[in-house]
């Protein structure tokens, strides 16, 4: 088979090639730095399958183009599948496989790191001490112990984040459409969404982006939150209405925000744009707030996660060789 990887950085190429060797995969693997979009889809001409990541675009037009050039399978090297139109993939008979879990620890630990950094302002302290400025003004935090942490979505990542927060001595409450026995075993208490908004000092988002969860954090939701709430999003940018978030920050309703994901991140994250004029005004506005911390969709980025992603991708390629069974298939 011929397989094209889109959005490939050196770290992807190295890990994938090493895993292909380890697993004895002898197909032709082609690595492209380009993001998948309509204009770049022809790079997959003659390929049986493509491998894509979170900020690639596999909408109807792109899938039709891929089908036209011979692609019969799309492998996602991530868990989320909001970047692909599953209805169109099914119509065209394109098999969609994903990596359902690679390291929930990576993401939960990053969310905890963001919570600690926002609270104790390590990022500001780092910059100050590099210049021998040891003034503490502006670095005041609060004890996490005894605070209420609200977790939205207690799947693999949310449950672990709740466990970490419980380890700090926080009271952990959660909202999910299903209760997770693992989360309950960590002492996490389920409440309604409104109760979560009303009671939480810190809210961390861990639910997927669906049409039903798009802008779940909007003006109305922010209005129900405690004044000074800390908001952390390591899930998907589209969960938050950025304009409402900015209004919440300006009015001091929101005390601090950490974003690893942003609703306009596609085309921004994963590349160096220093020296360019950033066009997204909502994005640039966020950088004017001292209490906003942004990382570029890096929560997944650990050695273990990259290796697990590569291993499951090779398993998915093996499954394509025999046309199934597909344990990691994503269906509409
Ligand atoms: P998961 O499928 O194990 O858990 C998702 C949970 O969200 C489930 O318990 C589900 O019931 C719940 N949920 C669904 N709809 C909900 C709603 N309306 N309100 C509240 N909860 C709802 O997924 P996971 O592995 O824990 O991943 C969570 C999210 O993290 C993914 O959807 C993905 O978007 C994101 N993610 C981000 C990164 C990163 O690098 N930043 C990496 C991996 C995953």
Work out the number of β strands.
12
**Average of per-residue pLDDT values:** 97
- Provide the gyration radius in Å: 21 Å
Q: Which fold does the CATH topology of the largest domain refer to?
A: Rossmann fold
Helix content: 25-40%
Architecture per CATH nomenclature, i.e. the level-2 architecture of the largest domain: 3-Layer(aba) Sandwich
Low-pLDDT ranges: none
Tell me what portion of residues adopts beta-strand conformation: 5-15%
Number of helices: 12
Domain D-isomer specific 2-hydroxyacid dehydrogenase NAD-binding: 113-299
Pfam families: 2-Hacid_dh, 2-Hacid_dh_C
GO molecular function: NAD binding; oxidoreductase activity, acting on the CH-OH group of donors, NAD or NADP as acceptor
Family: Belongs to the D-isomer specific 2-hydroxyacid dehydrogenase family.
Write up this protein:
One of its GO terms (molecular function) is NAD binding. InterPro entries: D-isomer_2_OHA_DH_cat_dom, D-isomer_DH_CS, D-isomer_DH_CS1, D-isomer_DH_NAD-bd, D-LDH-like, NAD(P)-bd_dom_sf. Belongs to the D-isomer specific 2-hydroxyacid dehydrogenase family. The chain is built from 12 helices and 12 strands. Strands 8-7-6-9-10-11-12 form a 7-stranded parallel β-sheet, with helices on both faces. Strands 2-1-3-4-5 form a 5-stranded parallel β-sheet, sandwiched between helices. Helix 11 links the parallel strand 11 and strand 12. Helix 1 crosses helix 12 and helix 4 packs across helix 6. The model has no long low-confidence stretch (mean pLDDT 97). The structure holds nicotinamide-adenine-dinucleotide. The site of nicotinamide-adenine-dinucleotide has 31 residues, from helix 4 and helix 6.
